[in-house]
Amino acid sequence: MIDVIEAARRAGVRWLSLYAFSTENWQRPGAEVDFLMRLVRRVVRKHAPLLHARGIRCRFLGVTDPRIPPALTRDFADLMTLTEENRGMTLTVAFDHGGRGDIVTAARSLIRSGVPAEAVDERSFAAHLPFPDTPDVDLVIRTSGEQRISNFMLWQVAYAEWIFPPVLWPDFRAPHFLACLHAYQQRDRRFGGVTPNSNGAERP
Amino acid sequence: MTDTGSNEPGPTGGGEHHDREPGPSAYGTDTTPLFGPGSRFNAFFNDPRWALAIIRATVLEAAHPQVGAALIDNSTFVTHPWRRLRNTLVSLQRMFGADDGVRQREAARLNRLHARLSGTDARDRPYDAMDPEVRAWVVATIFESSVTMCRLSGQPLEQTAIERLYAEFRAYLAALDGDAGHLPPTVQEFWTYYERVVEERLENTEAMRVILYKLFDHLPAPPLLQGLPTMWAAGRAIAGPLIGVITVASLPEPFRRRAGLPEVPGAQTLMQSAYLAAGLARFLPDGWIQTEGLTKLLTLSPGGDDPRARTVDALRERMKRAGALVRLLTPIPPEPEPDGATGAPRGAEEFFSAVLDQTGDGYVDWPDLAAMAREIAGRLDLDEPEETRLYDAFADWWRELQTALDTDGDGRVSAPEYAAGVPSLAGPALIRVAEVLFDVTDADGDQRVDAHEYRTLFRRGFRRNVPGADGTYSRGVFVREFLSFMSGRERSTPYDPLFTDA
Fold first, then answer.
1. pTM for the full model?
2. Quick check: A77 and B324 CB within 8 A?
3. CB B321 to CB A82 under 8 A?
4. Is residue B487 part of a domain?
């Protein structure tokens, strides 16, 4: 994982998000969840100094479920505190995250703020999402050959490019990541508009 | 920390003045006023050695059975040492400052404060903070420790300087007590008196043991450093016992022997090195070791709006990050984490120990509530009759609490008794406390607590969600906030630092 983060940083990626644990993952067997929590805690603590030294701002998206061990929540908070002033890459770790849940949260917040219905547009709605400064996602890499969204940052991935490498996540390394980046560079992003390149013209 | 009772230093006395107050003329050509910037005391105030000397003086004070009993019963110095230190230093500055009016006012305040401190000790011997013998002893310990600190650090004072300092301390006692008669008129006679008290009066009291062996081992971090519990605890684990050893080694030998205090090999050398090192700190640049500045910094509450708040907040941000890093680097303990219920509303037991039990003895009784009244009166700088009104309101509240909660009838309220009876906490007497608190906070009596009055009480500005549209507190809102804090329902109110800061 740290390998991929470092590769992304070197490649000049400014925003990187990792999907560590979804709100649906709680349905997994208790022992597996416990193991995962301990693993995440070890990983966070092990890499905290390096992440900070690399100027990476870390934050955790989600983390609301009371079942998360307090010690882990504490470590998350500490890592966020430690790196909040960093202005290198922003690493968002989605933990106990669900895209629909975020949208519901935003809707609630919007209603509470008493905005009239006509005044709500996409931009003002997005301002109520958690971490509203997160830009739209350009590229989603879904490893392990799965081809699903799995409730991941639903709002932000609206116009994302998707790549589905067959390699399993634990085996996914820097070269795989760079290959995905390269594939992304070949994509022609039109955002629903017409192609700027007429047939037969040379690609930039 | 220099007094017989609770919050403020020194003994105090009645209004009559200057029976035998020693004047400068008694010491030849020295015509510098005894108080103010030219005084010997003033020169000591910023001396780092003074920290050691004050600890030593406090131990000698506490070894006096009457002072010890008063400390054990009433003092908050174990649970709120930083608050107590700040109050003590502010009081000393007022007493030794150049302004006579300020001094008289402070003396009167200390007198009122000490008049409220009396009782009986564990062996049923009475104690009274107004006893002139007791107050003389307290002043004597500070004087003697100041002289001794110079001797121990290898820079003994000249005889004239000692005489001058003694005259200042006698004047201090006279300002408090109206008369310095319980301290011998000359330094020569003082040493006889001092040795006699050490030989005949001092005991191995509980208060003394608490200071020597408990206070520094459990010293809570000052508010500013609360983000760094691990680091603080690590530093304290080393420094705590050392301070104890150093202080014991500096006590008079006959007393050490009689009180059965341990002789640790090398302790004398360690003690002298400590004093020497502290003495060398005077070569540091000016401003590095300003006692006043340092103390204020240590007692600043995070998030307060002191003029230096921005610097302090920036410092705190760094501290916070350092604390986060330290925690992340600390190895995970091997045993599984206890599933602490974090984020839950403050439990009754936590509120009991953080807010109500000011003296930290595990029970709530009158001295705990008196300590709250004392802190409020000190912050608002109350005069009579407001001060008495406030104390009376707290006393009524205490009676109400006792009636409602002391189910086993032992005269005090334990944590389980409190937890069982929380719902009945907000009775009419507590509402009365809130009302009186509003009255005394509302200094200009316009029935609103404005930003300035608010800051005087809480040492911080209004919170963002100011209730009143015009930026002031009405009586109703003020009372409601106080009650919701006192019923333990609400965290992070401005009352938290007022009552819980160390």
1. 0.58
2. yes
3. yes
4. yes
